[in-house]
Amino acid sequence: MTGLVLTGAARRARIAGRSRVALAIGGSIILAWVAIALLWPHLVPYDPDLQDPLRRFTPPQAGHWLGTDQFGRDTFSRMLAGARPVLSVAPLATGLGTLAGTVIGLVAGTLGGLVEEFTMRALDAVVVFPTIIAVVLFVALAGRSTTVVVLVIAASFTTIVARSVRAATLVEREKAYVEAARLRGERRRSLMLREILPNLAPTVLVEATSRFGDAIFAAATLSFLGLGQPPGSPEWGASVSDNRTWLQLAPWTVLAPALAIASLVVATALVADALRHRREAR
Amino acid sequence: MRRFLLRRLAAIPLTLLVVSVLVFTATELIPGDVARTILGREASEAAVRDLRSQLGLDRPLPVRYADWLHGFLTGQWGDSSTLRVPVRDLVLGRLGASLLLALLAFALLVPVAVTLGLVAGVHHDRPADRVISVASLAFGATPEFVTGVVLLVVFAVRLRWLPASAQIPPGATPVQALGHLLMPALSLVLLCTGYVARHVRASTVTAVESPYARAAELRGLTRVQVVRRHVLRNATIPATSALGVQLQFLLGSLVTVELLFNYPGIGALLLRSAVDKDLPTLQTTAMVLGCLYMLIFLGADLVYRLLDPRVRLGSAS
After folding, report:
1. Could you report the predicted ipTM of this complex, rounded to two decimals?
2. Between A1, A221, A237, which is nearest B223 by CB?
3. 3-class DSSP state for residue A46?
4. Nearest chain B Cα to A5, which residue?
5. Nearest CB to A221; choose among B217, B256, B290
6. pTM of the model
7. Which of A189, B21, B153, B195 lies 20 to 30 A from B165 at CA?
8. Distance between CA atoms of B45 and A204, rounded to whole angstroms?
9. Measured between CA atoms, how close is B278 to chain A, in angstroms?
10. CB contact under 8 A, A247 and B282
């Protein structure tokens, strides 16, 4: 009833083919946005902050491809400029969270015993604490700053990454090569860093890619809530928030940044999913 | 089962204690002297000191924490410092509104996600599965305010089918009220469906390929019969735990969706009280939301255990 049942090599080939397509599409969209984030000053047709009171709410047309907003600023230029804040917060938060999570998960998984028990229970307690409440509390108390946003997002990732790295470590720990290294008399430190860690690379890579998508999601959402980038910033979440007052009059000012976010997160999700399938197909 | 329940119930006060300490210290650390804020910059140092002792702010932190926790537990939640109304009325009213929205979203989410997951699982590795999988991946990755804004542009601005604000005007009929809630609920559903559908799909694939499903098929049952009698239960039970996770996720998303659609819910209240530094409201809202999270966590676990006889009988722990 499952139709053509693919097994073994044929199935793997099919998954590999599909994941290649997903990787290519997702990867090129991400690369395009990264290039825009780096080079936008050379790419924009107008200064994103240039106000033109005579051309407020211009609908999309030649000259202003995506129209203008309530100050007559060019929506297309602002959309390109908005890539930079998003793509500076997301990689930083992802890197920090993945690093911390990998260290915690690896140490807890390798050492086992009380250290592991304590660490995992502590992580459980943190996971139960609703992230959004924590974020709102922290940003309210520490004030709005990019550093706070990066740290808050990184902290929420640490627990997730630590759990899956620890799970993968537990699997690796039981394998013969670790046993062999242990019998050779390798120290725990080198066991962790030279034996187990390299074999965790696929897990960490998949985690980091998924978290990267989540980081873009979180950074844009925080800006939308008024807790990330300040109002008036071309950042996508902040733009949607600023322009939604004029939704009826100028829907393009909201749609452009919204679709920019969507393209980047969907591309990241495609890449993460393809990497996960590849790892599972191995 | 009873031991499990007791252990989980015992864990609740412990977790809430941790949450309360975090909420209290976080709000205590918010910069700014409350007494100075109330009296203004011109007030004398002595007047500020008097008010501080009147408000009990000069007592040590642990004492104030114990006092505050006692107040929270006995329902003395004080007055909002910016809106000048009792926090209890404010929080409970908003909580009701949020639960209405969340329940509507959940009521839409379950049938949609289970159907999509079943269809994808039964037709796995075929076009229907690919379309459902990629779509749920895409919507699951997109922030709810992005899908919400696109829904607004399409259904409120272009087609004018639905009102742009989720605020239900007084005296609206249930149908009109539903119209106001539909778009916010839909943006929540789009966000959460993918995750649940993927779980249902995975367990459907396992169930469809299982010996009992094959045997049923060989006995001559039609595909619909096999799915209804043998696959459905085995595919949906494991997804219950995914539903619990999503319900928590859904509560978190309320903040964004309520802001986008101007809905007077508890998420919007949390955000407003944090931005306005309305401490009594912020503390209570955070605690009430924390309790709600905990209850959902427990509820989802319970439902899962009640539905699955293997777990219920305690053979798998």
Report:
1. 0.83
2. A1
3. coil
4. B125
5. B256
6. 0.84
7. B195
8. 56
9. 11
10. no
